[in-house]
Amino acid sequence: MRRTTTTPQGDLYKHQNDLPPLPVPKLAHTLDLYKESIKPLYPYGEKDEEFIKYAKIIDEFATGTQGSGLQSKLERFAADKRNWLAAFWDNYAYLDYRDPVSPFVSYFFSHRDANTAVGKDQLLKSASLTRKVLEFMETVEHETLEPELIKGAPFCMESFKWMFSNCRVPGESRDYNLVYDGSKNRFMIVISNGHIYKLQTHDDATDSILPFNALYYGLAEVLKDSEARGPNETPVGVLTSSNRDEWFSNYQKLNEISIVNKVNFEDIFKSSFVLCLDDCLPNTIEAKSRNCWHGNGLNRWFDKPLQFFVARNGSSGFLGEHSKMDGTPTLRMNDWLVGEMYKLDIDGNVAKPTTVPAIRQINFEINNEISEAIKTETETFNETVNSLDIKTWQYFGLGKDDIKAFNCSPDSFVQMLIQLAYYKYTGTLRPTYESASTRKYFRGRTETNRSVSSEALQFVKDWENPSVPVQEKLKSFRAALKSHGNYIKLASSGLGVDRHLFGLKQMIGESDEDSEVIKQFFDNPIFSYSQYWYLSTSQLSSENFNGYGWSPVVPEGLGLAYMINRKWLHINITNYKENPFGLKVDEMAYFLTLSVQELAEALRKETVKAKL
User: What's the EC number here (predicted)?
Assistant: First the structure.
């Protein structure tokens, strides 16, 4: 863990010692909730013969020595820990994962555009963005950033310690993170034309952030130098797009080639963040989103938790490496910096500074084997990203204000909108993941909200049944909203199904492996099916973004990242172009529009009647 030498001046971490530990739910609670969550996944629900058989196994697991034994082990394991899940989760969910982090794990934000000099000029935007990121970093270092409170309850701020001067590093079978004292490493990494540069960010004498004009001219020098050199034919950064085992192998080889490479890696790891100056002109929202989501892989370092992009036309965005941070801390940073950046009244006449920041080009020494690996990974990356499709669905006829006026939870509304659209499209509902924040607990990250419920299934069936009166359809809709809201409250309180079942599974020892009840409970097909996320969803909302998303998590699936803003809705839809169900992102967008129009019309009529 980083130990910063900057003197704390604020209260960023003042609630950390008061945060409650993550609870271990009662076994009976979890298994009852689990049973309810799988009912709608069977063709005949609770009357399905397979469900009845499995329900008996669940009951035996709950009341017998096998389930209670695992529960006791987990409770003992958790007894001296403030977060029992943290001991497993980062490794299981992220660092053990061997597929490429981009495009499969990392998440992106595309910043809104502005018709100003800062909004449209690459260097003005880059210098403005850099300055604002550094100002945000200063509030984290000095701990003057306000701690977050939700309904008066403090949120864990631990992840901010991993935000700057941190990097994921490839390891054998498992990656790890290195985090450094940012106050001793006053520089950032800039990548342009595939060339990597180390750029000074603070005054050596005063340790103050360099003024805007110094940052501007430093970035201008980087851009000028990279253009003079032409595109880097062997950009080492593309290796960070590899399968993690491949990247680990090449990382080791690069370290063996030269001590220079070790120094280069250390500089990248220690840097505050990465800024990529991209030689492209993304104009559509999909093009802007794709540039943030993955780009061409040649002008990136995917292992950094904070990576920003500015294209030739000023289009900007962010990509977050996920292993130590979820989206809420970086949402806060990006939302703030975009708003602040566009307040700057700057034109193209930037005064030349008295001193230009120090710049060092980072040149890796490579051999033929590494050169071939770069070519291979470039081809593989292009094939991978070209296999994925993206569609940005934005609806300006409805927003959070309208949804609240309908007396609906905005998040539950969008979740049921997604279920209705998917049902219209496919004629069924399938397991759906929604991220629920557990940051009310120490080192809390996420729990799964299982959005498909018996009430959700009844709602979509009723809605599509022409013989059901509109009043009854809306009754079913509101029952589905209530069910969803109840589950997400439990999940946010650490009382969902998935993390607890995961914890119980980690407690299985040699003495348990021959237990038929344990085998029948965990090996039942519905256990894995109910965690096979055909729809991967999450909400992070900002008026300062025009894009936000990630990849689908299974070959048949959809990635559905959504924003609920005051006057408009946004859902980023991703999938594999070739998928077993033949799903198309454009067609899913069509059914979202159809569904939201039907829901809005019915709810508006209901609201009018209620006022009469």
Answer: 2.3.1.7
